[in-house]
Amino acid sequence: MPIVFKKNQAMFRDVVGVEEAEELLGWLQKKPTATVDLSACSHLHPANLQVLMAAKVTVADWPKDSDLRAWLETALKIG
Amino acid sequence: MTPLLEQFLSEAHELLDGTDKKLMQLEKAPEDETLINELFRLVHTLKGNSGLFTFPEMTRVLHASEDLLGMVRGGQMAYSRKLTDQLLEAMDFVGLLCDEIESTEHIDASRAADSARLAEALRMLLPGSKAADAPGAGTAISTDVNKVHPAPAATPTPDLPPLFEIPEAARAEAFRQCGNGESLYWIDYTPTPQCFFQGDDPFYTARRTPGLQWGRIVPPEALPPLAELDTYRCVLRFQLLSAASREEIAEYYRYLPDQVRTIAIQPQWLVTPQGGLNEDPTGAVKASARSADALPQLAEEDAAELSAIVAAQRQILMLDDHSAWRAGQLKSVAGVLINASKVVGDSTAQKQIESALAQALTQSQGAPLLTWLDAYEKKLSSKTAGQPDVSSCCNECEPERKPDARRSASAPEESSAKAAGDDGPKFGRRAEDAFNAPKSLKVDQAKIDRLMNLIGEMIVSKNALPYLAQRAEVQFGVRELSREIKAQYAIINRITDEMQDAIMQVRMMSVSFVFQRFPRLVRDISHKLGKEVQLVLEGEETQADKNIVEALADPLMHIVRNSLDHGLEIPEVRRAQGKSATGVITMRAAQEADRVLIEIIDDGKGVDPAAVKRKAYEKGLIDEAKLEQISDREAVNLIFAAGLSTAEKVTDLSGRGVGMDVVRTAIEKINGTVQVDSTVGKGTSIRISLPLSMAVTQVMVIESDGQQFGVPMDHVVETVRIPRSAIHLIKQSQATVLRGRIVPLKALNTLLGLSAEPKANADDELAVLLVQANGEILGLLVDGFRETIGIIQKPLSGVLSGLSAYSGSALMGDGSVLMVLNIKEVV
Q: Is the pLDDT assigned to residue B293 strictly greater than 50?
């Protein structure tokens, strides 16, 4: 599984495909205070990204991949 | 160019001619349904064909045309003049692309914009499209990749990229690239909302943009609350800065030209002193675009920026930093300064900085650079203060800036001209355009056949010349004339030979024509059978006469099906036998002298000779005696006998016992031979040998009872002379022992119903022609051997066609007729 859902944190791993977005959306709706750990993520489909952005989710750990991190920061960094 | 592409192009030209004609006709008879149907079919075919290749530019336009015609066909919209114009335009564009592909084998990425524009224009005509009735809507420009920046006059708030939002570091880096003379583009990528359903990952696309310097994801104004969010509707946009060339970018985004806007960045735009909105330097450029008067002012602003850069570098140099970083710091400061002076066009400064840097590096401190900076700043301030230096500065700057100003001023004109009239780029192959003659001709085969017959007759009549020369010498005693005839003959001979070769070349086709259908066939059948098969094609470029290549199609199909069905085992069995799970079928073609060899090799279970023997015996194909003496190799070749199948059950693929028989018959019909070699458990190899061309047959001329006969060389094994004493009589039949092997002998005279006895030579030896027929070697007793010649064999016609002993006749050079024996029937 590219996303591992823990108690109140979703861990993204490797490449997260489009098919994960629906589940992620459902999960985040149930857990409005959840955070995400993107450290092991190398790429995520924009469908997932949209969900994260719409949920204004807090990023607990940014991706180790600096390129991805730079991109995601433009979208997910609040303020 | 691949044969498939060649075929596509030749078909495309034909289809395009068809669409042009139909469009013209439709204009006269817009109600004609059959015409619309035909037109739709043409465009549909063309679109389908284009989809086989990566020509998105072409497919896009054709797809839009097809949609439009579909509506017309369905009666949802009326046929109109505007429609014809637009469709003709689209077809011209497709024709243009075809020509381009023909010459360069690919479509230039710059066509993507035109393609998008045309497709858009076509879609505008669809009923329900918002601009359907607006005047000039047909050619309205919705996107233009080539636009430098939008016309300031038309758009009050210029649509310049918000460069100041780029973080300082990225922008500085980008500026450096710019200063080095590299191009820089701002890309605005807005994926369609449905793109996720098309399997796109726009984020990935954006991340992989060539020459990417910086990029960001732009969320929509307001994201819907989580509960209302449609996950699969893309709402994001991407903004990128790329240092790749325009061509590279266009090529990369060639599938989505309508979703991407590219804007060339001027280096000055990047220099925003500490990123204030008010000081947006683009204002200066805009100003310069409007009036040339703005130039001095611009120079002032520019100089201000320059001094800001210089000041920043000074600060860096003053920093009391770690000495470990010092060298890098110095280099970077010098780099920025050099680039800055490049932009200004100050080449002397460049050299000064370089030498200062060298000094600074050796001393490991910034002092030399600082000294230079001091001097430079003084010079700068004197310029901005309006000292005489100003003019020189401006002169230095001018050549740099002028082209920009001109470019940005003329670009709006261009684009507005485009927008105003429907005078977008025309792809016309109209009457006034130069006619582009096609490079290949489509010729009816009958015409080539006629040429072939004519050259055949020519060869025959040419062969009469040596006889004439001989007659001139022997009969009339004119040696001189004889020599001259011979000299003329040599010339005619050379020309006819070349001519024959040329005509044969016309008829030559590569076997890939037949081979290319097999990958699909093998894939489909192997899936059906649950087998894993890899097909290897070799020597596809081998050429042979068209008739031969075409006649190969069916036999090869049978053989490959057989291999798939009976030859290759299912993966489990293969693994159990220690073979790889994937079976391999190799199809190999090669030319060997004047024959084409085709091998079909599989690594399957092979043919069991014992099983074949038993089956053949059961079916009565061989008798008991034969069953005992037949070799394994001969037994395996029995699979070509009629009515034999070793498969346990009949499947829809093979097993009816007709397959291999058909193969043999078909191949023999074109004077080919087929042979099978098989090792149980290892695999089977089937070898087909075919003549290169059916036109010329090599025959050996033999003499018997004072007549000449031709024997096809395919059947000739060898010629020997045997003393009469070595011929033994076994019951009624004659035989001899040749190299330890018993060879049955038959007199050709007897076989042909001639009463004469075979003639022996002075040493009482008989001429024996060893021939191979029906898999056996047999000796034919003849009177003598003549030469081997190439003849053009004509089938017997009329009453003679019933004579199965002869396969045909040919004219000899001296005008006599040579009968060619059909060895299989004779013996």
A: no
